[in-house]
């Protein structure tokens, strides 16, 4: 082991001990007060810095080892003048330069942007503890430790060396400045955030001229449980002193902050983490753990599922949230895969702390495009998910066996449409009547009489729609009528009675007194759990509403619709398609043509204020070509806030 003596001797940086092949320079200090930058022209500053670098270089031990191959300034100049990328430009840098150029960063003039950022106080407290400890160890080493938010805003900066501090101030590397890549181009903070991994940016690899005098190593700091990025640690020193040790040091500081943060994690989160890790240990498939604050997914869930499958899977998991009993359920994913989800609750003491889902995936479409057996057609309706087929087949069996049924599902999910289509598909010659309990309160007597008269009329289907809305005082009388009829009319000449209820409604008396009169309860799943159906439903409905085949949906638009949670189900999808048709009558509807509400894929229903805010963000992002910084300015919010809200509302930006 080689130790970097100058640093370790002072009791600091001893963790820089490295194998010989990775050993490198130790940080240097100003040797002479006269080297300190004078307040003067930038030329003076550059000269002062050059002097400083030269001296720094002299005091280095094994500077070049462990350092990315030095890239001379000509590669950068060639790129900036002609867009030519030299062979010695590292991939991470070449990608970052391209992003910086696309974001319109001016390489010849650094234009720092100042602002506020909402910092998590727990994270900042952990950062402060670790930075104070590091500062003690650094003594007066000319190295700066910076902490920036997930959007690149500098929140903390320490530098024990006054001279280096002076240079940092000149480029505004100080709290309150946004060092996101889209603002100042390639740099240790913004580029590491983009790459989501530790990244070293050396001298001329920086995009902006003024930053090329520095070496910056950025290491993301993760939340110890969720592993989401809570900020970034950046170590900055002179370009001549930069090497991979700087990166190791940044990673060490980031890890120390994570350890510090771990102390603040509550019992519930730890309990969930414990169960999640235990599940991951034996996992051969996706594992998802969640509570109201946290979602954790193993590598399998992140890598092997498409975005739309993952969105549907998460939507399905959130339905079991808060359940204190183990449950197993099945979800159809948009790709045609069937997910069997085994949910086990997690407890912290007696308190429910969340739950872990072990997911088993079964491909339902075989290679070679083997077709499924198509169910009998239901006129005017579309659907081919397993869930849809299970429901339609259960309802068909109930009809054929004269078994009275309750069809339950969320509002607008298509309960009534399905019963009506089933009736006309199976017994088109028979009488069909719907009586809506929503109107029962207006004329209770008349409503009950209508039900009685229906039973006296010709046989057929009687739908008692919205049964959960029946006023309490009418439940007794209706149950008497139904019980009496149930005793007589279960034969081919009788009535097939089907009721619809909203499963979200609070209707204990209906459940206790009326539902047991029916033979079977069948569930029609919310649209968000039948993403596959959207692929056939949306084009069909678009053509139906437009009464034309001149307008179609692109595959990307369908994919986007499949990712939406559809709290208002098919009715909401219908409204969206109507809205699209109000401004586009022919051609191909693409993602950009969809209303703002469809560009967000969230797991929960938003309040109206939240959806207004979400729509405003989506509109602004659209008008700014997807540029989050510009959208933030447009909306008068900080970049951190827009990033948080984009995540919170699960807004996707497709390019
Ligand atoms: N699978 C489907 N294919 C085509 N259209 C559908 C389908 N499901 C629902 N719809 C249409 O969606 C709209 C809403 O359906 P419907 O009124 O049956 O929902 P519901 O569940 O009975 O709603 P609620 O309980 O809120 O009254 C209707 O216009 C219906 O024709």
TrEMBL record:
<dbReference type="InterPro" id="IPR027417">
    <property type="entry name" value="P-loop_NTPase"/>
</dbReference>
<dbReference type="Pfam" id="PF02954">
    <property type="entry name" value="HTH_8"/>
</dbReference>
<dbReference type="InterPro" id="IPR029016">
    <property type="entry name" value="GAF-like_dom_sf"/>
</dbReference>
<dbReference type="InterPro" id="IPR002078">
    <property type="entry name" value="Sigma_54_int"/>
</dbReference>
<dbReference type="GO" id="GO:0006355">
    <property type="term" value="P:regulation of DNA-templated transcription"/>
</dbReference>
<dbReference type="InterPro" id="IPR002197">
    <property type="entry name" value="HTH_Fis"/>
</dbReference>
<feature type="region of interest" description="Disordered">
    <location>
        <begin position="1"/>
        <end position="46"/>
    </location>
</feature>
<dbReference type="InterPro" id="IPR003018">
    <property type="entry name" value="GAF"/>
</dbReference>
<keyword id="KW-0547">Nucleotide-binding</keyword>
<dbReference type="GO" id="GO:0005524">
    <property type="term" value="F:ATP binding"/>
</dbReference>
<protein>
    <recommendedName>
        <fullName>Sigma-54 factor interaction domain-containing protein</fullName>
    </recommendedName>
</protein>
<dbReference type="Pfam" id="PF01590">
    <property type="entry name" value="GAF"/>
</dbReference>
<keyword id="KW-0238">DNA-binding</keyword>
<keyword id="KW-0804">Transcription</keyword>
<dbReference type="InterPro" id="IPR009057">
    <property type="entry name" value="Homeodomain-like_sf"/>
</dbReference>
<dbReference type="Pfam" id="PF25601">
    <property type="entry name" value="AAA_lid_14"/>
</dbReference>
<dbReference type="InterPro" id="IPR058031">
    <property type="entry name" value="AAA_lid_NorR"/>
</dbReference>
<feature type="domain" description="Sigma-54 factor interaction">
    <location>
        <begin position="381"/>
        <end position="582"/>
    </location>
</feature>
<dbReference type="GO" id="GO:0043565">
    <property type="term" value="F:sequence-specific DNA binding"/>
</dbReference>
<feature type="compositionally biased region" description="Basic and acidic residues">
    <location>
        <begin position="18"/>
        <end position="38"/>
    </location>
</feature>
<keyword id="KW-0067">ATP-binding</keyword>
<keyword id="KW-0805">Transcription regulation</keyword>
């Amino acid at each position: 082991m080689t130790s970097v003596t100058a640093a370790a001797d002072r009791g600091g940086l001893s963790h820089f001990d490295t194998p010989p092949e990775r050993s490198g320079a130790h940080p240097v200090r100003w040797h002479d007060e006269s080297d300190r930058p004078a307040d003067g022209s930038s030329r003076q500053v550059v000269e002062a810095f050059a002097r400083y670098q030269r001296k720094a270089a002299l005091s280095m031990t094994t500077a070049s080892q462990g350092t990315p191959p030095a890239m001379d300034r000509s590669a950068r100049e060639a790129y900036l003048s002609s867009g030519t990328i030299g062979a010695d430009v590292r991939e991470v840098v070449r990608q970052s330069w391209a992003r910086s150029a696309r974001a319109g960063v001016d390489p010849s003039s650094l234009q720092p942007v100042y602002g506020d950022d909402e910092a998590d106080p727990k994270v900042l407290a952990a950062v402060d503890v670790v930075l104070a400890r590091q500062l003690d160890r650094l003594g007066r080493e000319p190295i700066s430790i910076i902490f920036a938010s997930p959007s690149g805003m500098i929140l903390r900066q320490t530098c024990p060396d006054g001279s280096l501090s002076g240079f940092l101030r000149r480029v505004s590397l100080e709290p309150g400045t946004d060092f996101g890549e889209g603002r100042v181009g390639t740099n240790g903070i913004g580029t590491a955030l983009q790459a989501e991994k530790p990244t070293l940016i050396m001298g001329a690899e920086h995009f902006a001229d003024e930053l090329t005098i520095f070496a910056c190593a950025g290491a993301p700091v993760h939340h110890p449980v969720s592993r989401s990025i809570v900020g970034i640690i950046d170590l900055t020193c002179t370009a001549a002193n930069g090497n991979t040790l700087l990166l190791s040091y940044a990673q060490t500081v980031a890890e120390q902050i994570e350890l510090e943060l771990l102390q603040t994690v509550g019992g519930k989160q730890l309990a969930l983490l414990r169960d999640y890790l235990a599940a991951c240990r034996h996992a051969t498939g996706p594992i998802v753990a969640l509570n109201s604050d946290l979602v954790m997914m193993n590598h399998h869930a992140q890598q092997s599922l498409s975005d739309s499958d993952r969105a549907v899977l998460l939507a399905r998991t959130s339905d079991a949230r808060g359940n204190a009993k183990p449950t197993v359920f099945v979800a159809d994913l948009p790709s045609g895969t069937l997910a069997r989800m085994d949910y086990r609750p997690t407890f912290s003491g007696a308190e429910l702390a969340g739950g872990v889902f072990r997911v088993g995936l079964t491909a339902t479409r075989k290679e070679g495009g083997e077709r499924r057996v198509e169910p009998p057609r239901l006129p005017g309706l579309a659907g081919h998910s397993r869930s849809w087929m299970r429901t339609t087949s259960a309802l068909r069996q109930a009809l054929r066996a004269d078994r009275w049924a309750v069809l339950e599902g969320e509002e607008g999910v298509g309960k009534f449409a399905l019963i009506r289509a089933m009736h006309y598909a199976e017994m088109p010659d028979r009488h069909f009547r719907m009586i809506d309990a929503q109107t029962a309160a207006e004329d209770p007597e008349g409503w009950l009489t209508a039900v009685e008269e229906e039973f006296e009329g010709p046989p057929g289907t009687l739908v008692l729609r919205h049964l959960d809305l029946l006023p309490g005082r009418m439940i007794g009388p209706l149950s008497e009528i139904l019980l009496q009829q149930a005793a007589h009319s279960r034969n081919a000449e009788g009535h097939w009675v089907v009721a619809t209820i909203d499963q979200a409604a609070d209707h204990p008396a209906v459940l206790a007194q009326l539902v047991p009169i029916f033979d079977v309860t069948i569930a029609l799943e919310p649209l968000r759990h039948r993403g596959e159906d959207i692929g056939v439903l949306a084009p069909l409905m678009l053509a139906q509403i437009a009464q034309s085949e001149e307008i179609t949906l692109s595959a990307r638009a369908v994919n986007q619709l499949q990712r939406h949670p559809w709290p208002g189900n098919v009715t909401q999808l219908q409204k969206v398609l109507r809205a699209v048709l109000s401004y586009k009558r022919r051609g191909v509807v693409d993602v950009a043509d969809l209303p703002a509400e469809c560009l967000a894929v969230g797991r929960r229903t938003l309040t109206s204020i939240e959806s207004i805010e979400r729509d405003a963000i989506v509109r602004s992002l659209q008008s700014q070509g997807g540029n989050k910084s510009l959208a933030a300015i447009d909306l008068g919010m900080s970049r951190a806030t827009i990033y948080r809200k984009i995540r919170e509302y699960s807004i996707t930006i497709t390019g």
